[in-house]
From TrEMBL:
<feature type="domain" description="EF-hand">
    <location>
        <begin position="50"/>
        <end position="85"/>
    </location>
</feature>
<dbReference type="Pfam" id="PF00036">
    <property type="entry name" value="EF-hand_1"/>
</dbReference>
<dbReference type="GO" id="GO:0005509">
    <property type="term" value="F:calcium ion binding"/>
</dbReference>
<protein>
    <recommendedName>
        <fullName>Guanylyl cyclase-activating protein 2</fullName>
    </recommendedName>
</protein>
<keyword id="KW-0844">Vision</keyword>
<keyword id="KW-0106">Calcium</keyword>
<keyword id="KW-0479">Metal-binding</keyword>
<feature type="domain" description="EF-hand">
    <location>
        <begin position="135"/>
        <end position="170"/>
    </location>
</feature>
<feature type="domain" description="EF-hand">
    <location>
        <begin position="86"/>
        <end position="121"/>
    </location>
</feature>
<keyword id="KW-0519">Myristate</keyword>
<dbReference type="InterPro" id="IPR028846">
    <property type="entry name" value="Recoverin"/>
</dbReference>
<dbReference type="GO" id="GO:0120199">
    <property type="term" value="C:cone photoreceptor outer segment"/>
</dbReference>
<keyword id="KW-0449">Lipoprotein</keyword>
<dbReference type="GO" id="GO:0007601">
    <property type="term" value="P:visual perception"/>
</dbReference>
<dbReference type="Pfam" id="PF13499">
    <property type="entry name" value="EF-hand_7"/>
</dbReference>
<dbReference type="InterPro" id="IPR002048">
    <property type="entry name" value="EF_hand_dom"/>
</dbReference>
<dbReference type="InterPro" id="IPR011992">
    <property type="entry name" value="EF-hand-dom_pair"/>
</dbReference>
Length: 194
C-alpha cells in the first residue's frame, strides 16, 4: 500500500497514487501544463460542440492563478475538490464557473449562459436539466428569485451559497456543477486520472 500523509482534516493523501497521477499527467501534458484546447481534447469536447462553453468555464475555474493553463497542482486541487470537497467548497467552485468575467458577481447573462450549456449537455445525454415545462429563461428567473436577496440583478458568492443551501430546487439545478465528476467521466478520453 502507498505511503499516506495526514492533512489538516481527516483526509489522507496517498503519495504513491499522487506520484502515479503525476507521471500520467506528464505523459499527457509533456509541457507540464494543460492548455484550453488540450483540456477540451483530453475530455473529448468538440471545439464548438454543446459542451464547449461549459468546458471553457470549468477550465477557467480550475485555473487558479489565471495564466490560461492548468498545471499539475491546479489539476490535483480540482480533483480533490471534485472528489472530497464539502458542499460549501463545491458551491464556491461552482460560483467561479458561473462568474465568467471574474468580477465576483453572477449576472443574468452569465447565469443564462451556463444554464443553457448545462441544458444542452443534458439534452445531449438524454437527461433534462429542468422540469420539462421550464425554459432556460424560466429556470434562470426562478434561480434569481431564490438567490438574489438584495434584488440588484446580480448574485454575490454569499447569496449563491446561501441560496443553494436553502433551496433544494436551486441546488438540484446546479447539480451538474455540484458534481462535475459524472460530466468529466462522460466527456474524457481514455485516462487513468479518474
Amino acid at each position: 500500500m502507498g505511503q499516506t500523509q495526514q492533512t489538516g482534516s481527516t483526509e489522507e493523501i496517498d503519495i504513491k497514487a499522487l506520484q502515479d497521477m503525476y507521471k500520467k499527467f506528464v505523459i499527457e501534458c509533456p509541457s507540464g501544463v494543460l492548455f484550453l484546447h488540450e483540456f477540451k481534447r483530453f475530455f473529448g469536447v468538440d471545439a464548438t460542440g454543446e459542451a464547449s462553453d461549459y468546458a471553457e468555464n470549468m477550465f477557467r475555474a480550475f485555473d487558479k492563478n489565471g495564466d490560461n493553463t492548468i498545471d499539475f497542482l491546479e489539476f490535483v486541487a480540482a480533483l480533490n475538490l471534485v472528489f472530497r470537497g464539502d458542499l460549501e467548497h463545491k458551491l464556491r467552485w461552482s460560483f467561479k464557473v458561473y462568474d465568467k468575467d471574474g468580477n465576483g458577481y453572477v449576472d443574468r447573462s452569465e447565469l443564462r449562459s451556463i444554464i443553457d450549456s448545462i441544458s444542452r449537455i443534458k439534452r445531449g445525454s438524454k437527461t433534462d436539466v429542468s422540469e420539462p415545462h421550464l425554459t432556460v429563461d424560466e429556470v434562470v428567473d426562478r434561480i434569481l428569485d431564490a438567490v438574489d436577496v438584495d434584488r440588484d440583478g446580480t448574485v454575490s458568492m454569499e447569496e449563491f451559497i446561501k441560496g443553494a443551501q436553502q433551496d433544494p430546487w436551486v441546488l438540484s439545478m446546479l447539480r451538474l456543477d455540484m458534481n462535475p465528476t459524472g460530466w468529466l467521466r462522460e466527456h474524457r478520453r481514455k485516462s487513468a486520472y479518474f
